[in-house]
Design goal:
Layout (H helix, E strand, L loop, with lengths): L6 E4 L5 H12 L3 E4 L4 H15 L4 E2 L9 H13 L4 E4 L14 H29 L2 E5 L12 H22 L5 E7 L6 H4 L4 H14 L8 H12 L10 E4 L22 E4 L5 H12 L3 E4 L4 H10 L1
Parallel strand pairs: 1-2, 1-4, 2-3, 4-5, 5-6, 6-7, 8-9
Helix pairs in contact: 1-2, 1-8, 3-4, 4-5
The structure holds NADP nicotinamide-adenine-dinucleotide phosphate.
Length: 312
């Protein structure tokens, strides 16, 4: 796997998946243009890239939802390197909320970075990518192909990004030998969930729950996504375009689960569960206990009922 000599523009390089991708790309020999908002973090990641490749990355900082920043990002990259081989559209945010309580401000905020900025950046990058027969990797999510409650605007934005990936890849750029792919990560340990409002305790609970929602029994690491991005960006994927590659510990193949399950609460409720000593009744009792209900448990077999009561 090599990216030697390739010029790559990576958005959201200052944290999480974007940071891991930048460092891996540097190790693989790419020349980098790195975008992010937090200048301190971006500079730290740039130093790590420089240590890995002995090449100083170009910094193209800025909020991609602000007027003119996308144009400047591409213009500065081309002015510096005179070419572009790889665009990694990674910058993104997560907002919680359902159809009943997501505000239009939240919707616009999510769509503006997760989709609109990607559309604009890709549009401006395409003339340069056609010249180099380069490629685009969009960082989507398992929330693109699958549906989760409590994350409506985010799911919509990632689903749009998946369709954008396929349309641009197959209908528009394949004939010009520009490949366009996406990765769809499951839960990856980064800052995104805490930034969306989870406190430390909720985040710990969420990661614990991820052991059940991912077939491989754990959340993923940013570098595991970076490896997939690098594979798609390199010649290793020369015959791959239009794919939305799950990097999710098998989660896409599982039944949909409630994503922010702890937003569900039975706190303060009193629940009477019949048949609580076995099977569905036992599972319902244990889940209700986790959701903080106060329980009255019914069942015939006193030994089993006592065991379930202990678990509750
Ligand atoms: N972590 C997961 O579980 C997970 C799962 C599936 C998909 N993803 C996707 O992976 C991508 C990266 O997320 P992450 O998990 O690495 O989160 P993260 O640690 O919060 O990093 C997000 C990055 O996006 C940047 N960013 C956000 N809004 C921006 C804006 N308006 N303009 C420019 N940069 C902006 C941030 O910049 P600053 O820090 O400098 O502000 C940061 O570098 C996102 O698209 C996310 O949807 C993540």
């Amino acid at each position: 796997l090599s990216l030697k000599g390739k010029v790559a523009l990576i958005t959201g390089a200052s944290s999480g998946i974007g940071a891991a991708t930048s460092i891996l790309f540097a190790k693989l020999g790419a020349r980098l243009a790195l975008n992010g908002r937090n200048m301190d973090n971006l500079t730290k990641i740039a130093h790590q890239c420089e240590e890995a490749s002995k090449e100083k990355p170009l910094l193209v900082p800025g909020d991609l939802t602000e007027e003119g920043v996308v144009k400047k990002t591409i213009a500065d990259t081309i002015a510096h390197y005179s070419q572009l081989d790889i665009l990694v559209n990674n910058a993104g945010i997560l907002e919680t909320g359902s159809i009943e309580n997501t505000t239009m401000e939240q919707y616009d905020k999510v769509m503006n970075i997760n989709m609109r900025s990607v559309y604009e950046l890709t549009t401006l990058a395409v003339p340069h990518l056609i010249k180099t027969k380069g490629n685009v990797i969009n960082v989507s999510s398992i929330c693109g192909p699958r549906s989760f409650s409590g994350l409506l605007a985010y799911c919509v934005s990632k689903s749009a990004l998946d369709q954008f990936t396929r349309c641009v890849a197959l209908v528009e750029l394949a004939s010009k030998q520009v490949r366009v792919n996406a990765v769809c990560p499951g839960v990856i340990i980064t800052e995104i969930h805490k930034r969306a409002g989870l406190n430390e305790g909720q985040y710990a609970e969420f990661l614990e729950h991820s052991k059940e929602t991912h077939a491989l029994g754990r959340p993923g690491k940013a570098d595991e996504v970076a490896q997939g991005i690098a594979f798609l960006a390199a010649e290793t994927a020369s015959f791959i375009t239009g794919v939305t590659l799950p990097i999710d510990g098998g989660r896409h193949a599982m039944c949909p689960r409630i994503f922010f399950f702890f937003l569900l609460s039975l706190k303060g409720k009193v629940a009477l569960v019949n048949g609580a000593s076995s099977g569905i009744g036992a599972a319902t009792s244990i889940l209700s206990a986790k959701l903080r209900a106060r329980l009255a448990l019914n069942g015939w077999n006193m030994d089993n009922l006592t065991k379930i009561a202990h678990q509750c």
